[in-house]
Give the backbone structure.
Amino acid sequence: MRKIKQPLALYIHIPFCRRKCLYCDFLSYPGRKEMFPVYLKALELEMEQYLNSGLKVATIFIGGGTPTVLPAEAVTRILEKVRGLAEVLPGAEITIEANPGSVTKEQLALFLQAGINRLSLGAQSGQDTFLKALGRSHTVKEVEKTVVAARKSGFTNINLDLIYGLPGEMLDDWARTLKWAVSLGPQHLSCYGLQVEEGTPLARMVKEGRLTLPDDDEISEMFLLNTEFLPAAGYHQYEISNFARGGAKGTAMGYRCRHNLFYWKYRDYLGLGPDAYSCFSGNRWANLRDLDLYIKLLNEGKLPVAARERISKQQGMAEFIMLGLRLTEGPDPVIFKERWGKSLEAVLGSRALPLIDGGFLRQEQGTYQLTPEGMLVSNRVLTELLAPLL
Ligand code: SF4
């Protein structure tokens, strides 16, 4: 691999969980503990293929799956291996995802020692009935206990993942979850609408009429509640679904997730592990979505890549704008001009005007931003805006 000068974001996928949640479409295997050592060996082989001493790593995100099903020592070894091969920049944001109730105080202390400085907890809901409906393996109490334990251990940057639009959930229920989450005092909140993925047990239950989901209007109300309630509680909305303390416009970065900002700002990232994605220097590839094949190929000295493409200029411009519009500040107009040699205005031109008139888009300081109404129908807005580039 050629030397990359710009710092990049590194994602490491751990494809194991205690058990499978009913809505889950991620590549994660319940159980399969016996695979941990062979998987970790394969992961190291993949690291050796990509990482080198010229590579600067600005953020690391250990996600899954549930990375904390691994012993803390294994996580420490993963990070040592990264540091041995590449340059992890001082002050790098290093996140680990954890499931409440499955992470111990000892693990938390070892994670901090290993340099992990951000904990992302899959809390999902503040009510046990909804956790049960999702097939989550933890309770609300366990989320509360884990947050307290993490803070006591020394974590000062905690994210809670939440899902709205759950089976049977009403606006009041979601309001209660938001209030509860804020009362725990995390630095960051991610609030995503439930996606019912084909082939999951949840999709089957919905199809069979055993579960009822809120309708589009109710979902919109829940989304709009996020954009009103969370900023009023001190969480700046910096992305459609993400809210951070101390990250208001014009101030320091606060607790925005630096790793995910690499994706939204269309900067280089490298993903390791099965089903991980990478994108840099105009190239993109996806790893195989199969654990056994991933391990086999790496042991044979081959890369476990399923698909690879060179990103065209048109495609690059469209993706930069599409991802940038997820951010409340919009796509960066200066970087856009540097990368593509044209201004955002020249590329979007008159296509933006009807969307601005319709109240879906705003134009400010050489860039464009989705309004809350635009965020609600972002797919439609993006299709109209980017049609000539797609
Ligand atoms: S914990 Fe996350 S990755 Fe694991 S089964 Fe549940 S949703 Fe999927």
Summary: Residues 17, 20-21, 24, 26, 28, 64-66, 99, 122 surround iron/sulfur cluster (CB under 6 Å). The chain is about 40% helix and 25% strand. Residues 8-264 form a domain with the TIM Barrel fold (CATH 3.20.20.70). The mean pLDDT is 94.
